[in-house]
Amino acid sequence: MFNIELENKEYKLLCKNYSKNDGVKAIFLYLVIMLVLFLQGYLYKTNLSPTILNVLQGIFSTLILFIGLGFVLFSKEKLNTIGITRKNLKQSLFYGILGATILIIFIILFNKVIEGKKVVFLFPTITTAITFIVTAISEEVVFRGYIQTRLTGLIQNNIITSCINAFLFLSTHYPVRWAASGFSVTILSGFYVVCLILLHFVCDLVYRKTNCIWGSYLLHVLYNVFTSILIFSI
User: Fold this and answer.
1) Which of 19, 105, 148, 232 is the most interior residue, by most CB within 10 Å?
2) Which residues have C-beta within 8 Å of that of residue 148, sequence separation ≥ 6?
3) Percent of the chain beyond pLDDT 70?
4) Where are the transmembrane segments (predicted)?
5) H/E element holding 171?
6) Mind listing the pLDDT tens digit for each residue in 71-126?
7) What long-range pairs does 31-36 form, CB within 8 A, spacing at least 24?
8) What angle do CA 183, 185, 190 make, to 5 degrees?
């Protein structure tokens, strides 16, 4: 089950076939998503209840997912080009669980050992849990499945494209907060930023190793759920 090779052969082949036009479409998709997220953020300035805002978050995530799928279908590409396939499914899920376990252990150890914080468990509501599930699949399909692979049409270096995509993925966590609370570079904590970057690279590794999106999706869901359950207090 373990394989030293970090990139699946089919993943490599797909990336080699993308053109500059595909790369431009990936950037355009990113800009569209940022616009959608800013619009979502402005809703937090309204008098809508927290429950409705949580539901709307799931709706916006679903919208982003369909926009991403729309780019694939509009280009007449197959869904397996964004990792939606059963090929290598078991291997992908295994690596996803492994990656999630490593990330969660890292978060717990950092907060308990280095920060000296206590762990408090707070279980999310059903609405929040559903939002986590929808958000994870939309982000994996759009960023790991579509944007990063198509960026290779502009930059023929998977390490560089992964680093660029890490920045793009991280940046999407700012618009909602900026629109709701005002612009600030430090609106996200340093540790949260580090965790998001690590999440990207681990999800990326799982996907590129199997060319199957379901492992990175499972990893992302587990990360979202456990980081919401684990509350650290001094």
Assistant:
1) 148
2) 26, 161, 162, 165, 204
3) 94
4) 26-43, 55-74, 94-114, 120-142, 154-172, 178-202, 214-233
5) helix 158-171
6) 999 999 999 999 999 999 999 999 999 999 999 999 988 877 766 677 777 777 78
7) 32/67, 33/64, 33/67, 33/142, 33/172, 34/171, 34/172, 34/175, 36/60, 36/63, 36/64, 36/67
8) 140
User: Alpha-carbon torsion 166, 136, 180, 67, what sign?
Assistant: positive
- The token pair that represents 143 in the structure block: 């960023």
Q: Where in the chain are the domains?
A: 12-233
Beta strands in 46-167 (DSSP E): 118-121
Residues 6+ apart with CB under 8 A from 72: 78, 79, 81, 82, 146
Check: CB of residue 65 under 8 Å from CB of residue 141.
yes
pTM of the complete model: 0.91
Q: Phi-psi bin for 40: left (phi > 0), alpha (psi -120 to 50), beta?
A: alpha
Cβ distance 208 to 7 under 8 Å?
A: yes
3-state secondary structure 15-53: HHCCCHHHHHHHHHHHHHHHHHHHHHHHHCCCCCCHHHH
Amino acid identity for residue 164 in this structure: I
Angle between helices 213-229 and 126-139 (to 10 degrees): 140
- Cα dihedral 134, 66, 176, 27, rounded to 10, equals 130
The conformation of residue 115, written as its DSSP 8-state character, comes to S
Cα–Cα distance list, 44 to 64, 172, 175, 184 (Å): 18, 16, 12, 17
- pLDDT reported for residue 115: 64
Instruction: With a cut of 90, say whether residue 217 has pLDDT above it.
Output: yes
- What is the rounded distance in angstroms from the CA atom of residue 58 to the CA atom of residue 137? 11
